[in-house]
UniProtKB/TrEMBL annotation:
Transmembrane segments: none annotated. One of its GO terms (molecular function) is glucose-6-phosphate isomerase activity. One of its GO terms (biological process) is gluconeogenesis. SUPFAM superfamilies: RmlC-like cupins. The keyword Nucleotide-binding does not apply. It is an enzyme of class 5 (isomerase). This is glucose-6-phosphate isomerase. Residues 39-213 form the Glucose-6-phosphate isomerase prokaryote domain. It comes from Mediterraneibacter hominis. One of its GO terms (cellular component) is cytoplasm.
Length: 270
């Protein structure tokens, strides 16, 4: 078992099974689900890749210490975790399905989402398109690939569809902090056979392949996240702990307009 101190509460990873556990009765989660490779059919670079029952990733919804529950619900935020097992489907690194967020009620843009990597290394694929609900191929206006190591945090800007890829050798564990009112939209990513970039394993790391089911008006850009006091992001400081110190600071996850520029300013070109 590996203790994951970046969680901000006592949670350990069983590296053999990829499962999270806590020996503290105060720590709980609302729901747990495991996605198998059969459910990833149609989302992978290789349309012929066929394995039905290989574990792909786990989702733990609303992880909380009971004693801090109201601090989250008072500001309409939820703290979840995803665990992506190591490995590839053919040449392509394991990843999450990918989705967009629906607009904030009464607004023309969607909720942002904060992600912190707890263990391993992630590549966050973030794409802005012309219209994520249309039938024809989507046109990619901006494609950012954020390399994020354990202890680092990235914020997905409003309107950016996103998926997470495990580009490391080990198990990838990350958390997200998101509005409880944010709704995911999966259909257009499914129709496009995944996000606009596929990430292949190579001898020295990874390689980016454009998904031919999209039209591109830009080239993919690899970025790395920096600290951002305005967004409450500080390397190696658990987001859970930082949030509890100052919950009001994370109001931007429900009201992102004021900090729109900061979401991009904290991403540096690699
Ligand atoms: Fe999301």
């Amino acid at each position: 078992m590996k203790n994951l101190t970046l969680f901000g509460m006592p949670i350990a990873l069983d590296e053999k099974t990829g499962k999270l556990t806590s020996n503290e009765p105060d720590v709980c989660w609302e729901d747990y689900s495991r996605k198998y490779s059969g459910k990833m059919a149609g989302l992978l670079a290789d349309p012929d890749y066929k394995t039905e029952d290989e574990p792909y990733y786990d989702f733990y919804k609303a992880i909380v210490k009971n004693s801090t529950r109201s601090t989250f619900s008072d500001v309409d935020l939820r703290y979840d975790s995803t665990v992506i097992l190591p490995g590839t489907a053919g040449k392509e690194f394991k990843k999450t399905a990918g989705h967009f967020h629906l607009p904030i009620p009464g607004k023309s843009y969607s909720f942002p989402e904060l992600y912190q990597v707890i263990n391993g290394t992630a590549l966050f694929v973030m794409q802005r398109v012309d219209d994520y609900q249309k039938e024809e191929p989507m046109t990619v206006k901006d494609l950012l690939l954020a390399e994020v190591h354990a202890g680092e945090t990235v914020v997905i800007p409003p309107d950016y569809g996103h998926c997470t890829v495990n580009i490391g050798e080990g198990t990838l564990v990350f958390i997200n902090l998101v509005s409880v009112n944010s709704m995911n939209y999966y259909d257009s990513v499914k129709q496009s056979h995944g996000m606009s970039a596929y990430i292949y394993k190579t001898e020295n790391g990874y390689q980016i392949e454009k998904n031919p089911n999209y039209v591109f008006e830009c080239e993919p850009k690899v970025v790395v996240p920096a600290d951002s006091p305005k967004l409450g992001i500080s390397k190696d400081c658990p987001v859970y702990t930082e949030f509890l110190k100052n919950p009001a600071l994370y109001r931007y996850l429900n009201e992102p307009e004021e900090l729109q520029e900061e979401f991009f300013a904290m991403l540096k070109e690699k």
